[in-house]
Design goal:
333 residues; 8 helices; alpha/beta; 21% strand; seven-stranded mixed sheet
Length: 333
């Protein structure tokens, strides 16, 4: 019991240190909407307090996703499988792609300072892997232990990540590519475009020195299908540009659970209602919620986030698909 309490105190102390070190920094890139915002020191402190509360007292069942075993459908071309949080398996244009895989279950429910609720989908049956796409280097998206396991199992796969992401260990992938927003690359017949989003990655020296690293989304086009994985983002006008340049998308995977209240968290996270607006601006034909239920950084007090997302989508005439962890959906119905 005393060891558990000591670990909790250590994590809370680290969270507070990160908050103080991060005060005064401005999110780079696209300016988010819904001003005014709290000043950065208050924002950072509020984020830490919310993360601490959620880690010590995770949300009840109404805020958690259901889970199913991964089915053979997940290995079929033209499908997307939700693995939990922002982790996705995309089978498209003959390619097998993982996005932000956080799959290691040996961490006793913690990823860095975040407490995980539930387990990721079991990918032990994955037959092949062509590439891993990383949106940014926050630990709930960029888990080195998961990447090491994948590199050992699929050494011919490629690792693709933002230009300045902090790669903390050498990984034996066939190649490592660092990309910037709007950069294009090919993975077999699949056309991948790195996209700007309203978010950021880590900073050196406890967020106290230098700019924050990039955060990206990815558009995947090929095989007569188009999908977009937003990773983690707030609402911003950049999604109008993405929709105009690359849309429409058959399916947009958008984060829904960390944007309340907008004055505190909207500079880098989307609420369920923001997520619907993002999907609309992207000209998505369907929207799928991600980034909810597994790492509850923000305590949501206005009802289950998925219910809010579906309600907002219905009002906007946006079709939705809500998957359980391990669930698979065709990119096109």
């Amino acid at each position: 019991m005393s060891l558990c309490v000591s670990r909790i105190r250590l994590r809370l102390a680290c969270l507070l240190l990160l908050a103080v070190a991060g005060c005064g920094l401005v999110t780079p890139g696209t300016t988010p909407e819904d001003a005014p915002r709290l000043l950065s020191p208050f924002r950072e402190t509020a984020l830490v307090v919310s993360a601490a509360r959620s880690s010590l007292a995770p949300p009840g069942p109404a805020q958690r996703p259901a889970a199913v075993e991964v089915s053979p459908m997940a290995w079929r071309d033209g499908t997307v499988t939700w693995l939990g949080h922002a982790s996705l398996l995309v089978r498209q244009a003959g390619q097998s792609i993982l996005i932000d895989p956080v799959l290691d279950t040996s961490d006793e429910g913690w990823i860095a300072l975040l407490r995980r609720v539930g387990a990721p989908a079991d990918l032990s049956g994955l037959d092949r892997l062509d590439a891993v796409l990383i949106t940014h280097d926050h630990r709930d998206h960029f888990d080195i232990s998961s990447l090491a396991m994948l590199a050992a199992r699929f050494p011919e796969a490629r690792l693709i990540l933002p230009r300045d992401a902090a790669l903390r260990a050498a990984l034996p992938f066939a190649s490592v590519a660092r990309v910037d927003p709007w950069q294009d690359l090919r993975i077999g017949a699949l056309h991948v475009t790195a996209l700007p989003v309203v978010h950021h990655g880590s900073s050196p020296v406890f967020a106290g020195v230098g700019p924050r690293s990039l955060a990206l989304g990815y558009a995947l086009r090929g095989g007569g299908r188009a999908v977009l994985a937003a990773g983690d983002t707030g609402l911003g006008p950049v999604f109008n540009e993405i929709g105009a340049r690359l849309g429409p998308f058959d399916l947009a995977m958008v984060p829904i659970a960390s944007g309340d209240p907008a004055s505190v968290f909207g500079h880098m996270h989307a609420s369920p209602e923001d997520a619907v607006t993002i999907a609309t601006r992207l000209r998505a034909r369907r929207a799928m919620p991600i980034h909810w239920g597994m790492f509850p950084v923000i305590r949501v007090s206005h009802g289950p986030v998925v219910d809010r997302f579906v309600t907002a989508a219905q009002a906007a005439d946006m079709p939705t698909i809500v998957l359980p962890v391990g669930g698979t959906v065709p990119i096109r119905p």
